[in-house]
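Supplementary Methods, section 5.1.

A reviewer requested that the exact input to the structure prediction be made available. We therefore reproduce it here, unchanged from the version used in the analyses.
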Amino acid sequence: MAQLDTRQKLEILADAAKYDASCASSGTAKRNSRDGKGLGSTEGMGICHAYAPDGRCISLLKILLTNSCIFDCHYCINRKSSNVRRARFTADEVVKLTIAFYKRNYIEGLFLSSGIIRSSNYTMEQMVEVARALREDHHFRGYIHLKTIPDADPELVRLAGLYADRVSINVELPTAGGLKRLAPEKDGARIEGAMADVKSSIIDTRDAAKRYKSAPRFAPAGQSTQMIVGADAATDRDIVSRASTLYDRFQLRRVYYSAFSPIPDASAVLPLQRPPLMREHRLYQSDWLMRFYEYQPHEVVAAADDATGMLPLDIDPKLAWALKFRQHFPVDVNRAPRELLLRVPGLGVKAVNGILASRRWRRLRLDDVARLTVSVAKLRPFIVTEDWRPVILSDRADLKTLVVPKKKKEQLELFAA
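The structure derived from this sequence is encoded token-by-token as follows.
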């Protein structure tokens, strides 16, 4: 490997980290002030935006320790057989970069992942050393997210959780068959075993903290995972079902979905085209329904097409469910319980809370509901108010055409040049 300076390594390893969706980045136009005009820049390599556990939007240094890897997963651009430029940070270089960026107020934390070098244990040791040095040697109080390696020794994963705010272990693909076909060197049982160990450690330290003030914290922001969408034949029904199982079994904070992106020198077993990015968006919406709108997994799955198992791309899953199960509507906003109000297309959690608070004092009219939402037009077929009852509208065969938003411009590619 040719000798590279720190800036060259940062350029390579920050770019390689962009495919990890569990720390989402925000895109914008490139601007700088090198000509002496203006202030600031949007070109900080490796800096991305993510959300802290308390809801704050924070800036993180998002990099790989190395993009070299001994594994040969078909879908990964950093796989062993890939013809990409390689680079590697030492643990000390990552620590120095993080501190330097933090002191300049560029970032508020670190997201660190890595390819596998030498062995899973060796790589995990290097990542843990980064977190340890930041916390113990430099007394770093910023946010740290470590992407752990399921094949590593459980004690190393435990140490990662003691230093990091959040740890994540990728399940990679929604189905066992897809993982075996596209990542034969990875073991689904070992991945789930590592996630179960992290869950147990989180629970144990929480229980200890209730009894002892000095009890150590273990991944206080919980654990997350990521699934690649569109690399195998898994349907949206498969993905939603898998995500709900992961939430239940391992008490995950988030499941991230990453649309498969074709890579150079791709394997013949991979699809030639990427899936629509709208598919990824619909999966995030379905995830939101389960986490915040009290939908059961089987209800979200029911919104998918019966024949293909795919969620519709032209409308969101909540509207798709409402159109498919019109017998549950219209809903009387002055009488319906919270769980039914949350199923009304166009009513968010904040709007439902507003309705529940307001109707304690008076009966709500259509104008009252309109003040709580962005557009009342989408709501009309699905609600009853003091002065509105959609008797004819809700029974129309062409209802979908009335509530589906107008087609927007073609969506841009995720990593277009």
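Residues 188-211 form the longest helix (24 residues). These observations are discussed further in the main text.
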